[in-house]
Amino acid sequence: MNQPRSSSRREFLKFAGLGSLVFGAGSARALGADGREAAANSAKRQAKNVIFMVSDGMCFSVLTAAQTYLTRTEKRSSNWMKMYGELPVVRSLCETDSASGIVTDSAAAGSCWGIGERIDNGVINITQDGRKPVTLVQKMNAARKRCGLVTTTTATHATPAGFVATVATRSDQKTIAAQYLERGVDVVLGGGTQYFSEDLLADYRKAGYGVALNRDQLLADAGKAPLLGLFSKSHVPFEIDRLNSAALKASTSS
After folding, report:
1. Considering 78, 89, 158, 178, which has the largest number of Cβ atoms within 10 A of its Cβ?
2. Closest Cα partner for 161 from 235, 216, 107?
3. What's residue 248's pLDDT?
């Protein structure tokens, strides 16, 4: 098998520049005729479901770096670039800047999605003047739409919590755990058993939730709603940890 040849710094930067140009060209195409056609077609149909997928911390530079690496070492494009080039995808920008700092944390960014306003770093859905706007999930519930949160972090981490919770500090994950129940999130899957006390789990069960703390319990509750699934004390382990742990591999295999 041929080994990828090494690259000098100058060569890498040259291809990085080309990757940026390709990325820009693909985006322009997606926002051009194909994008307008996709928008026109979607306007004729009503969506039944919406999946809001957050690749936390992944900005354009990450996509460009991945594209550069794959085209340089494996002579192929990334799946992201294939999507932009081959599918009627529309890309847009959403500003999620913090109200309190140059660097935005997950709480402020998640709150921008949750209530559409700038929030201080470390705060979830409470404005600088003390207002507590209705969150996106609360609005969806009022419209009688089912909502779920599925994450590889703790279920009560700032990013998923930004769609639901209202707390003065993102570290108050026990309060966030209780608010998920109070605000009627239909499905919650992730890690973070340490933030759900036995009393709180009992309250979830009393409210009709299936509560799964391992793979077997999840399979037993498959198809049920509402559902709470917690599969680790903290964040869900990384893939490399799963591959090197027989117990993790058994608990997550299909």
Report:
1. 158
2. 107
3. 62
Most confident of 8-22, 26-40, 180-194: 180-194
CA-to-CA dists, residue 190 to 58, 155, 157, 228, angstroms: 20, 5, 10, 9
Q: Do the beta carbons of residue 175 and residue 195 sit within 8 Å? A: no
Whole-Å CA distances, 24 to 19, 67, 91: 8, 12, 11
136-193 pLDDT, tens digit each: 999 999 999 999 999 999 999 999 999 999 999 999 999 999 999 999 999 999 999 9
Q: How many CB atoms lie within 10 A of CB 80?
A: 18
Q: Which of 192, 149, 188 is nearest to 171 (CA)?
A: 192
pTM for the model stands at 0.77
